[in-house]
Amino acid sequence: MVIPKRGEVVDYAIGSRRIRVLVVSADAYTRAYPVIVMVHDRADGDVPGVLLPLPGDLAGGGTIDLTRIRFADPAAFGHRHGRISPALASKVDHGLRRLLAL
């Protein structure tokens, strides 16, 4: 079983579909209670705190959608594509704090 780390973009199985997700939970919780946000294939622009562009050199690019946050089944993780940059991780953190009023 693949256990990704916080900030990694990985494939994730939902039924027979495979999508890309970004792991946002702290590494200490990811083995049992991973939290993810969805990554869209298309580039939806940059809406700070909601939609963030994923660089094209990481898993083919796309858009990180912070509004699509969910718990994940650790057994459904697949291929690791790589890790987002520290600058993008900071934007993700800021966006999640804003969306969740933390």
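^ that was protein a. below is b, sequence first then the tokens
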Amino acid sequence: MSSTKKHKYSSKASSLAYASLNILLALAVFGTIYVTNSPIFALLLVALGKWRILSVRPRFWAANVLSNLVDIIVGVSFALLIWLSGGYMILQLGLTALHIVWLLFIKQRSKYTYAVIQAGTALFLGLVTLSLTAYSWDSFYFVAVVWVITYASARHVASRYEGISTNLYAIAAATVCAELGWISYYWMIAYTVPGLAAIKVSQFAIFAVLMGFVAERTARSYHKHGEVRFADIAMPILLTAMTMVVAYIFAVLNGSDAL
């Protein structure tokens, strides 16, 4: 067998092994929750799945944690959402399928568009899960976790640009979202999605993702043209404004479930 064929065979074998292990991880997360009715072992599995973070010298641990924070947030969110969906097997299996899609088809992509999708997924799932599990926490801890989730998501996108202060942009975005989180903590509104009775989507998560989308389009326009072109941000702004207006009207006319 030639060296080229050996390399192709080795590459295919590695890809198959990678896919199999990720599928097993997602199924194991679901299995431990189904058997124990607790998220503890599932969260441990998510942590063990990131063992490579600590497989280097300690001085690189912080950098590795930051670069993997988006994936950690998504993994923890899926584990907790599956647990919160206890008693709804179809919903749990659906979330497990989405977890597999994340692990196989989204997480490893490096193109800019996928980076935005990854960041948006972490922001949305992280804030939805936080709103469902931590609404009774002290406001300081709630806002602190909001800050971390937003910082990780913003940093994930900002790091794709050259010549900018990644941390400065991420800190600014996290601070703005944390302020919104503090307001939302005292006025937490959530919507029940048809067919997803066990999971309520917080208004805060929806608004945060929409505003993050506007910020991303603004940064992209400036980076590409040297200025922010209104044509690039008009539709995101319109979408965000319309969603907020509809949400307000919906709340006034019909009321929304408070978490």
